[in-house]
């Protein structure tokens, strides 16, 4: 969602804030702004649109300050415009605030503040916070105390940073439900919603937890609870490098991340395969492995692409590890009064590790005594920290809003977990070794698929003007159909639906005519004959068929319009390979339509609101 960055120190904060905001733009990008304080002067500059527009605007302003905060917005309340952009300020422009999250009781607070004479300029929920803090400052409280008192009245989620002209030696930050880190430097300190914003300056960070507040000066920081209890925090060293979060010569992060998959998949497996034993070793699960293996049931909760990975996980865990498994959208799970007990294991899958619904599902499952395990990409993220144990997918930073390499790495990690459980139950060593061998072969097979990039680009040219797409798959590849459709709709804005292929005849078949491209995921697996029948059904109605099929499948060519042939693997791993041509198809269609692939409209990388 929104991105937050702040600086206090001896340098000019303006370029630091702008560069930090550019790194954060993938989180939200409808407007941006900075607020700075220097020598008793305070100013806010904000703009509708991208950070580059803000940068252009301040280019000739010759701004200089040692204290400042910046924000990129993803609108929740009020349209994207300059007034609704952050920072928000009090009426005499001495107090600036940036916010990521949603203040649920903002109308009640606003009504109370209006009675006190406060005047509101924006339509946002965030603006109430700045006036609420001001209402305590005018009573003589310090900035820190005023923030604490204000937050006591607030319901909802927030990551906030506040600066005040009368106390220019500090930034006060606080979090509940939205991520915040403090970055430590020499005679300078930073705050951000995401380490990527400050990685150019420091690798030493302190993660705030929910209900905590930090007072950050240029050479010190203190952390306490909102209710004023001092807390000792651990300093973490970030291992990620700056190069890892750059585009590395690719036109878009999405393409870079698709092309990185041989390496990201390899990294997800590195040091985790026990070749002779035909199993996996997952350090993060050592303490809980017996409880996991003896679970009566596994639940997987996630959102979006991570939910699709969970659906593939369900097939793996039931088919190979023989544990009853259910998958549920985190947003439904959290409000459903789910039946969970201490014999259940709940996996939370999240690339960002910050998705609000997934985090709420985690807390619900934990409350009810289940074993709660995280499968996350972002190291140190809230879901990773709040899980009892877990496995990092190690895909590396994913910046493009459309998830690609995180999906394939999530599938790799789910297959490692499946292997671990299955080998402790009924899977034989030779069967385990077969899976290990196929896992090891994945990076080379992915490299082969990526060589089809040009061919897929040509296909994109032919289909870029379609208004609708249908994606069909069966068994393990039904979730791949859902993921292919999601990729296309989120970046190309073409309406696309994914279905289990057999379901087509129960409704979607009515849509099929010569204008409807239908993508079939048709590997030669246990469902092949059935899917060929479904292809024939579409062909009989004039639909344009694109098939993803195995190398060496000589039959399929005669019944489809286009076929992308890819290397074969075992059924349980085939979603990893089959999803890659679909990522490339969505990417090229969006590029050919001239769309912003990395920052599609209305979307945010990390969805930290409900
Ligand atoms: C995927 O391309 C999406 N942009 C989105 O569906 C995403 O997967 C979802 O918001 C979950 O995010 P998470 O994995 O960070 O929890």
Please characterize this protein's 3D structure.
The radius of gyration is 25 Å and the shape is globular. The model has no long low-confidence stretch (mean pLDDT 94). The protein starts with a strand and ends in an 18-residue tail after the last helix. α3 packs across α4, α15 (453-463) crosses α18 (574-592) and α16 (478-492) runs parallel beside α18 (574-592). It is α/β, with parallel strands linked by helices. β21, α12 and β22 (389-392) form a beta-alpha-beta unit. The chain has three domains: 2-238, Glutamine Phosphoribosylpyrophosphate, subunit 1, domain 1; 244-449, Glucose-6-phosphate isomerase like protein, domain 1 (Rossmann fold, 3-Layer(aba) Sandwich), CATH 3.40.50; 451-595, 3-Layer(aba) Sandwich (Rossmann fold), CATH 3.40.50.10490. 34% of the residues lie in helices and 24% in strands. The structure holds 2-deoxy-2-amino glucitol-6-phosphate (AGP). The site of 2-deoxy-2-amino glucitol-6-phosphate has 16 residues, from α9.
Largest sheet features:
8 strands, antiparallel
Number of helices: 18
Strand order of the largest sheet: 3-2-4-1-10-9-11-15
Bound molecule kinds, no repeats: 2-deoxy-2-amino glucitol-6-phosphate
In CATH, what is the class of the largest domain? Alpha Beta
What distance separates the N and C termini? 11 Å
Structural class: alpha/beta
Stretches with pLDDT under 50, minimum 5 residues: none
What proportion of the residues form beta strands (DSSP E)?
15-25%
């Amino acid at each position: 969602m929104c991105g937050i960055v702040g600086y206090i120190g001896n340098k000019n904060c303006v370029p630091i804030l702008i560069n930090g905001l550019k790194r954060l733009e993938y989180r939200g990008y409808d407007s941006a702004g900075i607020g700075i304080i220097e020598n008793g002067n305070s100013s806010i500059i904000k703009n509708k649109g991208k950070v580059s527009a803000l940068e252009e605007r301040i280019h000739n302003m010759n701004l200089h300050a040692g204290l400042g905060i910046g924000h990129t917005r993803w609108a929740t309340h009020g349209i994207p415009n300059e007034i609704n952009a952050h920072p928000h300020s009090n009426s005499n422009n001495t107090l600036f605030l940036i916010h990521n999250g949603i203040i649920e009781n903002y109308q009640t607070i606003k009504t109370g503040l209006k009675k006190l004479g406060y005047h509101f300029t924006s339509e946002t929920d965030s603006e109430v916070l700045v006036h609420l803090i001001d209402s305590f400052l005018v009573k003589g409280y310090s900035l820190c105390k005023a923030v604490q008192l204000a937050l006591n009245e607030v319901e909802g989620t927030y990551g906030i940073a506040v600066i005040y002209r009368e106390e220019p030696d500090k930034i006060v930050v606080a979090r509940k439900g939205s991520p915040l880190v403090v970055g430590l430097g020499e005679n300078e300190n930073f705050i951000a919603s995401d380490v990527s914003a400050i990685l150019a300056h420091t690798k030493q960070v302190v993660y705030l937890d929910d209900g905590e507040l930090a007072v950050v000066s240029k050479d010190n920081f203190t952390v306490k609870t909102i209710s004023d209890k001092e807390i000792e925090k651990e300093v973490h060293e970030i291992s990620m490098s700056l190069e890892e979060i750059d585009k590395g010569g690719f036109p878009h992060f999405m393409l870079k991340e698709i092309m990185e998959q041989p390496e990201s998949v390899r990294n997800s497996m590195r040091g985790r395969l026990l070749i002779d034993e035909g199993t996996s070793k997952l350090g993060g699960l050592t303490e809980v492995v017996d409880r996991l293996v003896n679970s009566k049931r596994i639940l997987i909760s996630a959102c979006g692409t991570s939910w699709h990975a969970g659906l593939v996980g369900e097939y793996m865990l039931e088919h190979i590890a023989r544990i009853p498994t259910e998958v549920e959208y985190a947003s439904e799970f959290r409000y459903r009064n789910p039946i969970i007990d201490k014999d259940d294991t709940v996996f939370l899958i999240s690339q960002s590790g910050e998705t609000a619904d997934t985090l709420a599902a985690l807390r619900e499952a934990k409350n009810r005594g289940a074993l709660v395990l995280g499968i996350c990409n972002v190291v140190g993220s809230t879901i990773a920290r709040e899980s009892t144990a877990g496995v990092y997918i190690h895909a590396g930073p994913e910046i493009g809003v459309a998830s690609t390499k995180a999906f394939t790495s999530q599938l790799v990690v789910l297959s490692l977990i499946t292997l671990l459980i299955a080998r402790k139950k009924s899977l034989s060593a030779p069967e385990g070794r077969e899976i290990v061998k196929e896992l090891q072969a994945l990076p080379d097979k992915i490299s082969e698929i990526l060589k089809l990039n040009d061919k897929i680009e040509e296909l994109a040219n032919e289909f870029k003007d379609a208004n609708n797409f249908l994606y069909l798959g069966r068994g393990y590849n039904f979730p791949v159909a859902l993921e292919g459709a999601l990729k296309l709709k989120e970046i190309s804005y073409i309406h696309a639906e994914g279905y289990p292929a057999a379901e087509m005849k129960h409704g979607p078949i009515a849509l099929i005519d010569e204008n409807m491209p239908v993508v079939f995921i048709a590997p030669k697996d246990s469902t092949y004959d059935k899917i060929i029948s479904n292809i024939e059904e579409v062909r009989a109605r004039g639909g344009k068929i694109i098939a993803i099929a195995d190398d060496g499948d000589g039959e399929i060519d005669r019944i489809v319009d286009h076929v992308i042939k890819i290397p074969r693997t075992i059924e349980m791993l085939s979603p990893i390979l089959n999803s890659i041509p679909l990522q490339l198809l969505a990417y090229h269609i969006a590029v050919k339509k001239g769309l912003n692939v990395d920052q599609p409209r209305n979307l945010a990388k990390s969805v930290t609101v409900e």
